[in-house]
Design a protein that fits this description.
mainly alpha, 2 domains, 0% strand
Length: 264
């Protein structure tokens, strides 16, 4: 009796065998329509990786995808580090004060190459600095002379309580215009045209895109305020000003309004 009861299948086992015998399709593998494709996720990840590399400039761009205008701007932390590094390089190049225009031109070229995912090594920076130095010294001497005269006039105006506030306002506008013009000329400097062409193009750029000039002037004023609060902030402020000037001048519609092609 005990052996017979041990060999007898339970009710649950019997029901399972009966169902499998009646409907064997329940044990079949899912068809291709219901079975998930294991290759879908890896292919999607690969496509995203290719797109990310193409936009950042780290990899080739597919034929069916247009390359980004500024691929170096996709990495936010890398861009911030490059802006601060550019400010440090410009600070080192501006130690003699009169070399500031050449350092700004070299820093603008360095940051532009990073934004376009090109070679922006230190060697290229110092090559641009040496190329911009001859004409940049003349520009720097002129800026120092005009700035010194403006500051001296402000010191004299401080002795007159009536004309002091108005003269301080005029002097501040003059210094802001000098700094803004220097930044714009530095971002437009090229070894082929030199400082002469960059300075001559200031007025057409102002007439063609006054909003870009106003944005650059606002960035210069903010950098001056940062430096006034803490002198050490002048280092990143220089990089931020150059980045702001490049951001407003590298726009495609700004290049079209000015009537000249994008910078090489």
């Amino acid at each position: 009796m005990r052996a017979a009861s041990r060999a007898r299948p339970t009710d649950k086992t019997a029901q399972t065998k009966l169902v499998n015998r009646i409907n064997p399709a329940d044990r079949a593998e899912p068809t291709d329509r219901t079975k998930p494709d294991a290759r879908t996720k890896p292919d999607a990840r690969s496509a995203r990786a290719v797109r990310r590399d193409a936009l950042s400039g780290a990899g080739p761009c597919p034929e069916d995808m247009a390359p980004g205008a500024l691929p170096g701007a996709t990495g936010k932390f890398a861009l911030l580090a490059e802006v601060v590094l550019t400010g440090a390089l410009v600070t080192v190049g501006s130690v003699l004060v009169v070399t500031a225009p050449a350092a700004l031109a070299a820093g603008a070229g360095h940051l532009r190459r990073h934004l376009r995912a090109e070679d922006n090594s230190f060697r290229r920076f110092w090559a641009d600095f040496r190329s911009a130095l001859p004409g940049g010294l003349a520009v720097g001497l002129g800026l120092v002379a005009v700035s010194a005269a403006t500051v001296f006039t402000l010191l004299l105006a401080a002795q007159d309580p009536a004309a002091g506030p108005a003269m301080r306002l005029v002097g501040g506008v003059v210094l802001l215009a000098l700094a803004t013009g220097t930044i714009l000329a530095a971002t437009d400097w090229a070894a082929a045209g030199g400082w002469g062409l960059a300075l001559r193009r200031l007025r057409p750029r102002l007439e063609a895109d006054p909003r870009a000039v106003a944005h650059t002037a606002g960035a210069v004023a903010a950098a001056g305020l940062m430096t006034w609060m803490l002198y050490l902030l002048a280092v990143p402020a220089l990089g931020l000003v150059l980045f702001a000037a490049l951001a407003v001048t590298e726009r495609p519609h700004a290049e079209q309004r000015e009537g000249h092609p994008a910078r090489p």
